[in-house]
Amino acid sequence: MSPSVYDAAGSQDSAAQADTPDVSAARTAQHNVVRELSRLAPTARELAELFAAEGCSLYIVGGSVRDALLGRLGGDLDFTTEARPERVRRLLADWAETVWDTGIEFGTLGAYRHGVTVEITTFRADTYDRSSRNPEVVFGDSISGDLLRRDFTVNAMAVELSTGEFVDPHGGLRDAVEQRLDTPAPPEESFADDPLRMLRAARFAAQLGFEPTERVLDAMRRMAAEIERITPERVQAELSKLLCGRHPRRGVELLVDTGLADHVLPELPAMRLEIDEHHQHKDVYFHSLVVLDQAVDLERADDPDGEPDLVLRLAALLHDIGKPATRRFEPGGGVSFHHHEVVGAKMTRKRLRALRYSKEIVSDVSDLVYLHLRFHGYGEGNWTDSAVRRYVNDAGHLLPKLHKLVRADCTTRNKRKARALQRSYDDLEARIQRIAEEEDLARVRPDLDGNEIIRLLGIEPGPLVGQAWRHLKEVRLDQGPLEREDAIAELHRWAREQGIEPPEQ
Prior knowledge:
It is a single chain. By secondary structure, this protein is α+β, with helices and mostly antiparallel strands. It has 4 domains: 4-178, 2-Layer Sandwich (Beta Polymerase, domain 2); 185-265, Hydrophobic Seed Protein (Orthogonal Bundle), CATH 1.10.110.30; 284-443, no CATH class; 450-497, no CATH class. The protein has helices spanning 14-19, 23-39, 41-53, 63-69, 85-93, 143-148, 172-177, 187-193, 196-208, 214-223, 232-243, 248-258, 261-264, 267-270, 284-302, 310-318, 323-326, 340-354, 359-371, 385-395, 399-408, 415-439, 450-457, 463-479, 484-497, and strands at 4-7, 59-61, 76-81, 98-100, 108-113, 116-122, 127-128, 135-136, 158-160, 165-168, 180-181, 211-212, 328-329, 335-336. The strands form 4 sheets. It has an 8-stranded mixed sheet with strand order 1-10-9-2-3-6-5-4. A two-stranded antiparallel ribbon has the order 7-8. Helix 9 packs parallel to helix 11 (232-243), helix 9 runs antiparallel to helix 12 (248-258) and helix 16 packs across helix 19 (359-371). The radius of gyration is 29 Å and the shape is elongated. Its cofactor is Mg(2+). GO terms for molecular function: metal ion binding; nucleotide binding; nucleotidyltransferase activity; tRNA binding. One of its GO terms (biological process) is tRNA processing.
């Protein structure tokens, strides 16, 4: 495709008009760029003038141009230039408030000024060995060569700041307007160079709602196994961004439909259980996608401007991964999944560890998977206040997320059943609130602390103190707060059962 060059003021030549299906939409998109870049004009103009005075071009490039087109430009800007790294460092030294060079071996320097973070990278013309994803860094001499090596056409646009020239050699503007993902080079070449780009395609589908072209989809299906060249840390980073996108379900479906999930999250396609005519049950994979959708809706309803909740979204997606391993066909045509929450929690822990998630995320997500069934049975009316206390205690800091997960897990099409489940959970939350107000459930502790146990029993610090503490906590959960005299009497009773005679007080 021949280059299409646009003036950032909004004009475009006749060739560009002929090449753009919707000229009005394209002009609107261009004006978005102008408006968004004008918002950061002082910093951008200063930087452009600085480089122009040295005879160097400076382009705002890649995701920054794409996000400006979409009206979602943030405070981090990406630039590219023909100037070599040491020259860029010298130009930035007196201009920026802070400069860092941690990426200088790849031709990238970072800087901060006026509340804006910039990264400036020398034109690249890298080559790849294709046995790993590590490029041989080669600096280039043209913007066209630099844009050709980028992952997708929507990330292969640039604006030359000093002249306002809009450079779009691969139709990225058109693809952005039409919400399409395509590659500047043939996708087979692009993905062979860096297989992580296939996962990025799913991530951009989730973040932006864009659809990959057929040639991109075909290449992803044929080359899915190449993703195994990528380190788990890089896979995890892309998967997390995907799940935190505005449309995470789209990204997940793309992973499964192309076969990428078989290599990065095989538990997902494994949930697509066959359902025969005699053993009807919900499709577990489809159910999990609906739960993910509903969890995201609840999250946004609770805090429309809040950050995406990665832990909740992972738990929603994985809460039933134990079902395939526990499915049993019962006499009479029923199907059971006994203890799938226990098996699922173990599977979740194993997979998230393999993806190098932090200990905190592994623990929180697996705990939610383990707890997600605990609520069922509440509607039968046999939960005591003790059961409610234990529910709160076991959930701990995850209780708000567990509330959302349990509500999201209601996917029945039977409206009467759905209303009954929601009423039951409304009632449980009301009971939790009532008991919390009376007993400070957020900090369920024994009525006596460790130091008091040591003094009252006349024992040395050690394991026995912990046993006594845990016993008193169980009593607290069962009976609620005790008067101090009653707590001491219970401690003495337990001690005598252990063969300990408390000293006279």
